[in-house]
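Researcher: Please predict.
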Amino acid sequence: HVQLVESGGDSVQAGGSLRLSCKVSGNSYRDYSMAWFRQVDVKEREGIAAIESSRSVSYARSVQGRFTISLDNAENILYLQMNNLTLADTAMYYCAVKEGVSKPWTVLKSVQYNHWGQGTQVTVS
């Protein structure tokens, strides 16, 4: 049973940085995709960064060059380093896991993922 617990969300000023963490437990998949998504109110959940067991990484254009996804395999923690935050980055951030690697055009699609954390709020002002 895969469980994900996010932390690190906070209120920051524009231009600041945050690092989100996602503690993953129960992931016994040999091949997997892990990703960060964000959601504002009832809008569609946006995939922003993904990393796969192959170590392939993908980013949405909206965060490319500012955000970095990484995975600590020893501690089973997924990270999202967010730099140069803007007002548009304000959202609830979720981590997610799926079994198997993904096609490049689907790795940031929320429907692909079946394990989700509860979310952590990031507010930029």
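Model: The mean pLDDT is 95.
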